[in-house]
Amino acid sequence: MIIGRLKGEIAAIGSDSVMIDVGGVGYVALAGSRLLSKLTVGAAAEVFIETRVTESSITLFAFGTDEERAWFVRLQDVPGVAGKSAMALCDALSPSELMDALALGDAATVTRAKGVGKKLAERIVGELAGKPPPMGRFGRFAADPTGSVQAAASVATGSRGEAVSALVNLGYTQSEAARAVAAGARVNTDSDVGGLIKAALKELSPS
Predict the structure, then answer these.
(1) Architecture label for domain 67-128
(2) Domain coordinates in residue numbering, the chain
(3) Residues 44-82 pLDDT 10s
(4) DSSP assignment of the chain, as one string?
(5) pLDDT tens-digit profile of 131-153?
(6) Distance from C-alpha of 103 to C-alpha of 128, rounded to nearest angstrom
(7) What is the CATH number of domain 5-63?
(8) For 54-168, where are the E strands, in sequence order?
(9) Rounded Cα distance, 33 and 162, in Å
(10) Cα-Cα end-to-end distance for the chain
(11) Same fold, 5-63 and 67-128
(12) Are 164 and 199 in contact (CB under 8 A)?
């Protein structure tokens, strides 16, 4: 059985986990401090879940958006990045910050995550730089929850993804497009796709 999402009432909140009451059943999931800070005991909430099954246990990891869950999975493609490190990365950096760090080769930003040192950060950047961002379980991200855990950043990352795709269609490589959009986004803080493309094209133009 794979659990992908839980919707219910917050029964308890710990230092690194949350219990969600769904129809009288309490599901305990590990969660980062950023998500936990948005939850309130007794309030309704809906979170995205990544289920990990081993011979000895079943572990649930909770996220505010499906995009965060997808990055949690993607990060573990890197040798040396297990669930704990991936959770720390998703807690310390938003999807847009992760995308920017990878596109710009910014290992220093990746070290903001607890327990992620310089060598591991450089390996993460080296392994994932130039690769398309992760997709949802069914080819696209599930809609953001309507409960208390919505993440506004998902709009911005969606726009960036569209801008990168547009540049790839123009003939630029995935790596070139991602780097240009990340650099352009620092100048053009608007999440408008057209604005991001214009800013990225300026970055790609010969000086």
Answers:
(1) Orthogonal Bundle (1.10)
(2) 5-63, 67-128, 153-197
(3) 999 999 999 888 889 999 999 999 999 999 999 999 999
(4) ----EEEEEEEEE-SSEEEEEETTEEEEEE--HHHHTT--TTSEEEEEEEEEE-SS-EEEEEESSHHHHHHHHHHTTSTT--HHHHHHHHHHS-HHHHHHHHHTT-HHHHTTSTT--HHHHHHHHHHHTTSPPP--TTSSPPPPPSSS---THHHHHHHHHHHHHHHHHTT--HHHHHHHHHHHHHH-----HHHHHHHHHHHHS--
(5) 888 887 876 666 665 544 544 44
(6) 9
(7) 2.40.50.140
(8) 58-63
(9) 29
(10) 55
(11) no
(12) no
Q: Which two tokens stand for residue 189?
A: 């803080």
pLDDT by residue, tens only, the chain of 207 residues: 689 999 999 999 999 999 999 999 999 999 999 999 999 999 999 999 999 988 888 999 999 999 999 999 999 999 999 999 999 999 999 988 898 889 888 899 999 999 999 999 999 999 998 788 888 787 666 666 554 454 444 555 667 778 888 888 888 888 788 888 888 777 766 667 888 888 888 888 765
- Classify the C-alpha dihedral 45-51-53-59 as positive or negative: negative
